[in-house]
Amino acid sequence: MTAGTTEFLSVTEEFLRAEPARNSVMLTVTADLVAAGPGAGPGGTLYGWWQPDDGPLAAAFMHTPGFPVMLSAMSELAAAALARDLAGSAHRVPGVNAAQQAADAFTAAWRDRTGDAVTVYRRMRLFRLARLVPPAPAPAGSARPGAGTDRDLLDGWFGAFAREVGDIPAHDHRADIDKRLGYGGITVWEAGDGVPVSVAGLTRTVGGMARVGPVYTPPALRGRGYAGGATAAVSQAALDAGVREVVLYTDLANPVSNALYERLGYRAVEDRVILSFEPPVTLHP
Predict the structure, then answer these.
(1) How far is it, in rounded angstroms, from Cα 80 to Cα 76?
(2) What is the CATH number of the domain that holds 160?
(3) For 131, which DSSP code?
(4) pLDDT by residue (tens digit) across 243-273?
(5) Which of 206, 275, 274, 279 shows the shortest CA–CA distance to 246?
(6) Cβ-count burial of 232 within 10 angstroms (0-12 exposed, 13-18 middle, 19+ buried)?
(7) Per DSSP, which regions of the chain are E strands?
């Protein structure tokens, strides 16, 4: 295990880039940390990899404090061994984000060592763009790049999105917005009167892959196709920039967004589950 992003990438980058869609989160998060420079980003991020018996690298993981530990594709054996190592090091893990079998193996080993209660937090599906199909009929308005003058609006929208999907509320959205504006990672959809009505984000491009998200439209403006327009626009912009794999994640509990992305030409790649861990309650007399 290591706390060094550079050391982690020196060992795992080739492995991660071999399947950039499935390793999208680890690739884009580490790319942001490298771009920000030494000392930037959340402290305490922990990384590691699995290389059995001096054979080829077979798995990688990343844990940012406050978030579930993120696992690449890995065997049940590797997932269980990682859980035991983390539990033995007293490293606090609030959950795990992985494919179902690896998540189950990690959880069983973690619960055996800690006694934590386990609940399903979210089930997600990874989609990859096959062929972009613009929404028809097209929504009113047009897309434009996000700008510095949008910061206050975007801060409110990013915060509202986080609350709606149950993400960590204390996340620094302004820093994320400034980062995205710096590399052109925000697209705003404006209605015909020039008023912003929806937003779609895009990660940095790593290994020919970029990930769309978040996509957000205020509740009062939904049902008019704005999210589809924004998603199609940011997807086309990525393709125009030479991105080979445009991907996104959806919450499987939201059939509306899943159906939208399929209509736009996105196709399912894999499912993941996020499990939450809670320490057992100790009752004092």
Answers:
(1) 6
(2) 3.40.630.30
(3) S
(4) 999 999 999 999 999 999 999 999 999 999 9
(5) 206
(6) buried
(7) 46-50, 59-63, 69-71, 95-98, 117-129, 142-145, 186-190, 196-202, 209-216, 245-251, 266-278
Q: Which residue has the tokens 């589809």?
A: 228
**Whose CA is closest to 3, among 49, 44, 51, 50?**
44
Judge contact between 107 and 96, C-beta under 8 A: yes
CB-based contacts of 54, cutoff 8 Å, min separation 6: none
User: Is 120 in the same domain as 10?
Assistant: yes
219's tokens: 């509740």
Contact, 219 vs 37, CB < 8 A? no
Q: Tell me the pLDDT tens digit for each residue of 126-163.
A: 999 999 999 999 999 999 999 999 999 999 999 999 98
Radius of gyration of the chain (CA): 20
**Are the C-beta atoms of residues 64 and 29 closer than 8 Å to each other?**
yes
What's the domain count of the chain?
A: 2
Q: How far apart are the first and last CA of the chain?
A: 40
Secondary structure (3-state) at 17: helix
Residues 90 and 206 in one domain: no
Spell out where 163-224 has E strands.
186-190, 196-202, 209-216
- Vertex 22: Cα angle to 16 and 24 (nearest 5): 70
pLDDT in tens, 31-65: 999 998 866 555 678 999 998 887 899 999 999 88
pLDDT above 70: percentage of residues in the chain: 95
193-240: per-residue pLDDT in tens? 899 999 999 999 999 999 999 999 999 999 999 999 999 999 999 999
Q: Check: pTM over 0.85? Answer yes or no.
A: yes
Are 167 and 197 contacting, i.e. CB atoms less than 8 angstroms apart? no
Query: Cβ of 172: how many Cβ atoms within 10 Å?
Result: 12
Do residues 32 and 89 both lie within one domain? yes
Return the biggest CA–CA distance within the chain: 65
What's the domain range around 205?
Answer: 131-264
